Amino acid sequence: MYNKDKSKRGHAVALFSGGLDSALAILLVLKQDIEVTALTFLTHFGCDASDRSSCGHNPFPVSEKFGFNVKLMHLGQKFIDIVRSPRYGYGKNMNPCIDCRILMLNEAKEFMKLTGADFIITGEVLGQRPKSQMRPSMDIVVRDTELAGKLVRPLSAKLLPETEPEKSGLLDRSKLEGISGRSRKRQMELAAEFGMEDYPSPAAGCLLTDMGYSNRLRDLLQHTEKIDFDDLNLLRVGRHFRLDEQTKLIIGRNESDNDKIERYAKPHHIKLEALGTGSPIGLFISDNGDNKLELAAAITARYCDSKTLPQVEITCSGRGEENRLMVAPAEPDTAAAFLLK
Ligand code: SF4
Q: What is the largest distance, in Å, between two alpha-carbon atoms of the chain?
């Protein structure tokens, strides 16, 4: 199926985030008359690249413009497992970049074997990122995936040991790059040479590099043994409050948040809403009975349009029941004390 008619000189599998570096790595190899199949990995912690509309890391415009195939692959539970306990630890936030690279490359390796492709390419640049793109980390990735000789980093190739396709002449090493460090200057020049006009900023995409999201995720993992996809989806929504070890409250910030809270709520959760006034939806999640329900209602009242009234009536609906509570809206300091920042 790939390069079946041998019209190309070879076939490479690429890790493709949709960002500039991985696109340039692909273009450098395409230019050498090699067919490229790009794998774009999806996780529960990134924007959804399968949505062809507004995502900054949508891989399709570049692939359509330059003529290579993109395959979307969801890493699902495998990725959640490494986020929970990464062998090589986290970056600045909850991003387990070294383990992530290893997982993606192992998937790419399987795909390479399945399709009889010749080698794998990535857009990594030596020394560009503090941990995952330093030489020792890049060597760990090669060692753990057993991809020595088969993994080409076209943007830094001239600074790295020669790989099999370079030795065999499939790739002309002199036409690859020797970029290192954080400057984007050479990448910009290459983008201009290739006629790439729009490309996303390098930081966009992975929520695990976001401090606020990482704090909410860390809290979830610390307090919940088994998490599911709805739990992860809720992390993207609203303000999160940790009320005690077994109790948490999520409060919508706008209508879109409220809709999502309704969508991801489970039957044992309780929805809180102020009556007769503009109100967010609060989602009360507890494995410890309802002893923090009044506190949750008071915090919900704090964010409704009647927050200056001495008392606000809150409906509590869920588990097949609907009850009402009269509460004084929480003081700003009280709400802030429980807020996950
Ligand atoms: S930033 Fe996110 S997607 Fe990128 S390597 Fe790190 S964990 Fe993986």
A: 79
